[in-house]
Amino acid sequence: MPHLITRQEAISNLEKEIAKGECIACRLVNSQGKYLLHKGARITVLLSEYPRCWGQVMVIANRHITSFGELETEEWKEMSQYLHAATRTIEQVLKPLRCYVAATGAADNQLMTTPHLHFNIIPVYHKTDKPATIFTWEHGLYAGTEAEWKELSENLHKAWKDNLLFLRHGEE
Ligand SMILES: [Zn+2]
Questions:
Q1: Rounded CA gap, 69 and 76, in Å?
Q2: d(CA 95, ligand 1 centre) in Å
Q3: CA-to-CA distance for 161 and 102, rounded, in angstroms?
Q4: 5 C-alpha to ligand 1 centroid (Å)
């Protein structure tokens, strides 16, 4: 099973990976790694590499924009469709009690977040979990083995494709 690591372990790992001041979101959007769920024309969908809950997904604008005022209508349409598809996918595959969906971010580039416009979809599995315990790193983050990441990614990819097709078809 994926296991909890402490906030400090996660930060130490990030410090090795991220140059100070680098925009993590821009790097993720331009990566082709195992965490990529979907690269769209304007929006990218990724598994969070440092999930607060196992199966956390991020939906990120490809352009480096930091406010909703900069988001164009076509970007928002694609983003909202991906948010819908990704949340449906998580519900089907991981069967959480519910999903928290939030556009978080910071005022400047930080190790744990970015000013870049993005949403987090966080599957919540325990009745005792509340926003105050989920939207923080104080209680740790999840880490998995290569096999666990592979299994998660494969399961989500399959359902993602079905959901995206279903939602696109519904629009026609
Ligand atoms: Zn950026």
A1: 11
A2: 31
A3: 23
A4: 26
23 Cα to the center of ligand 1, angstroms: 5
**Alpha-carbon torsion angle 149, 44, 100, 128, nearest 10:** 20
pTM for the whole thing?
0.93
Distance 28 CA to ligand 1 centre (A): 9
List pLDDT tens digits, range 78-100. 999 999 999 999 999 999 999 99
Q: Where are the domains of the chain?
A: 3-171
CATH class of the 3-171 domain in this structure: alpha beta
Question: What are the tens digits of pLDDT across the range 119-151?
Answer: 999 999 999 999 999 999 999 999 999 999 999
CA of 113 from ligand 1 middle (Å) equals 11
